[in-house]
Design brief:
Layout: H1 2-11, H2 15-18, H3 27-43, H4 50-99, H5 106-134, H6 138-159, H7 170-195, H8 201-227, H9 230-234, H10 236-248, H11 264-270, H12 280-288, H13 300-313, H14 317-326, H15 342-354, H16 361-372, H17 377-385
Helix pairs in contact: 1-4, 3-4, 3-6, 4-5, 4-6, 6-7, 6-10, 7-8, 12-13, 13-15, 14-16, 16-17
Length: 411
Amino acid sequence: MGLAWTLLGVSFIFVPLASTRPRGQRPRRQKGALDRIAAATAALSITPAPAPAFQIATDVARRGQIVTRTLLLVVFQFVLMSLGFITTSFGLILRESATSRDTIPLEVAARWFGLVAVYLLFIGISGGVQKSIRNQHPRFFAEHHLLRSLELISTLRQGTPDGSGGPVDVDQARQDLIAEFGVVATYLRRYIGRRRPFLGPEARGNARQRATEIARTMTAYQEVALYGSMEDIFSLAPEVWRSLVALAEQRLGDLPRVGGAPRSDEVHKHGLGVSPECDDDTATRLDEQPFRQRSGKFQPEDVDVLRRAMSRIYTTAASADPVLTGAEYPPERRPNIDYHRPETAWREIFKDLENGAVEDPYRRLLTCALESHPANPVLRELAIRYGLPVPRNRALPRTGNPTPRFRWPRF
């Protein structure tokens, strides 16, 4: 056991070496990762681009190299410590059982519990060494777990009557999917947190908020895996794949965010003073449509745009109730958004509105939504098209602490 502690102390010297970014290529690992990507995307009818798929495979292979380094760093002392613990425990028990057959002396029991405490402390320190190495490359591990979640979704897909696979333990697959999304949220927070100290005060706060929103998206995926139907889980596959590609290409601004704001280029494009919540795909669809002043009944494409925007902005029942109340939508007909996926709940609401639950529903809904989110570009665009009053943009508040600028020292 003393030798195990000595080796554990020596392993601290090699932690910086094991934490370095893998540079060499591992064709065998890359081929295995590419095969996993091909199998998962083929089962989910996703067509991956070659360049992102190769980058994902490279990152997953590098993650495997880091795991191998970590295991090699701690496995020998762990085996020695386990053998020492087992040998010492049996020695104490056999020696005392030969002298006292009925009871174990208190001193011997205290020594054994002390031995257990030392063994658990050793395991905790070894786990801390592994965790510190893995935290140096959170992006690789986040990509691995996102790919693993995509494989679980494809497994569920193949296990259904529509698929080609055999029976699947659905409960275990859902449980594993929930765990994978939770691990992804943790690694994404660490990945953004590693860059946060290099930012200014204001940018640091924005990065913290964005990390929270991205992690909240993974929490929403967990809720879908827990409460949603199979179709709801299958609908997560394109979003998970887009997140995986964005993470591999280090486009953090393209990661999905629950209640998030658009990218800075969209804020500049729409001339906004604040960062509104909107869906990037919805804003793109609006920009692609030819602008024309409209009146009367909402067009089907505009209704679809409004529904997507509402599902992105109001993701909880507490946030949606004031808007639905202002639109005079009856409370007894509202689905509980907290127990549904927001897209599914808002699809049911709009289907009910289309059937005549409220008179002139879309204008009322748009007017009430603009009161709480006056700077949202999607809502403002629709309001202008249909002649509704558009609130003025609010300017960003100025703070008294400007972002410090770096200046070269004068010698």
